[in-house]
Amino acid sequence: MAENNIIAKGCFEFTLNDISKVEGKIYSPIFSTAADILWQLVFKPCSTADPEFCSMYLYAIPNSREQYSTGIWEERNPYIAELFLKDASEPIVIIKQKTLELKDKYSLGERSVRGYSRFFKNADLPHDVIIGVTLNQVEFKHTITRPTQNPPSELINAWASSLDQIEVADVKISVKEKSIFCNSYILRNRSDYFRAIFEGEWAESNNVMIDRHGTIENSSSRESSADSPTDSQFKAVIEIQDFDHDTVLAMLQFFYTDQIGFEVNKPQKSPIALFAIADKYLVKDLRQRAKAKLCKDLNINTAAEFLFREAWKWDDLKTHTMNYVQENFEDVRGTPGYENIMKNLAFYPQASELLAELLAKLVPPKKSDSAAKKRKSTTLGLSAEIF
User: Fold this and answer.
1) How large is the angle between the packed helices 245-257 and 153-161, nearest 10 degrees?
2) Which residues pair with residue 80 across a beta bridge?
C-alpha cells in the first residue's frame, strides 16, 4: 500500500430480514479494502458439516495478479478479519465474533474461502440477523479510483474474426492435414518461440528448420506444387504434428483475443492440453492460466492419477501436485485412482521415482539413521509395499 495513503479500520455489515426464509448459501455484495482487494461474505444458515450450526466465511475475490497465481496471495497477508453476528433489533450488541488471521491463508481454489463451518447455533439466531466483518486495514486514497475496463466485445470480435482469414494472413499452419491462416506479427508478439523464429537468423535464410515434432519452412525455399499451389504467398509454412487442430486453434485464438475457454470434457481443449502447447511454444500467459486452472481443479480423487500420468512431465506442476498429495495423503491413498496406480505400476513410467520422492516427503530420514537412508533408496517393489 502506498505511503501517502491513509490506512483505517473498516467494518462491513449486511442485514438479513427473517433469517428463516434464507435457504442455501448466500453471498454478500462485493466490498473492498483497497482498489483491487475485493471480498465477499458467505453465509449458510445450515452448515454442511453440522446442520445445527450456521456457517460464515470471508471469500477473497482474486484480482488480476491473483487469479492465475498458484502460490500464496501475499497481498492478503497483512489483513486480520473479525467475523461477527448481531441481532438487528439490537445492532450495537455482537452476539458472536470470531477472528481470522489471514497471513498465508489465501490462494487459488478452495483456499480462496476462509472461515468457520460451525459459526453459531442456528436455533439461537434472531429473526433478523446482521452479518458482518471488521478488517484491520482499509485504504483511503487522495484520488478517485475507477474500475479497470475490459476491451469492448466488438474489438475482441474484430480480432477474433481476422484469424484464419487467408486474405490477411502471411503464415500458414498445417495441423494434421488441416490449415490455419494467421499473421506473423501476432505470432511473434505473443510467443517467445515464434519471435525467435521470425526474428532470428532463420528469418533471412532459405533453410528448413526441423524440430522433434514438426517442420517450419521459409516459403522462398518451398516450390509451388499441385497439392499446395499457393504456399509461396506466405512468409512461412509451419507444420505441427504433435498437437490436435483444435488445441492449436485454441492457442491461436488466445493470441488474437487474450481469452481462453477450457473444456475439461474435450481433450483437445482441456487445461492440460493447453498447458502443454503453451509450454512448448513459450506462451507464458496461457501456460500460467492453464496451470492455475489445473491447480484449482486438483482434488482428493484426481490428484494421484494426475501426478503419475501428467504432472511429472513439468517440474513446477509436479511440485505443486506432489505437495498436494503429501498434505492429503491419508485421503488420497484411499481413492480408486491411487489404488489403480498401485495395481498397475508398469503403466506409469515414472512410478518408481515418484513413489521414492513421495516416501521421502512422508517419512523424512534422520541424518543419523542409516536404516532410514537405506529406506530412502528403496526399490520399486518395497515402495509399493509401503504405500
Assistant:
1) 140
2) 101
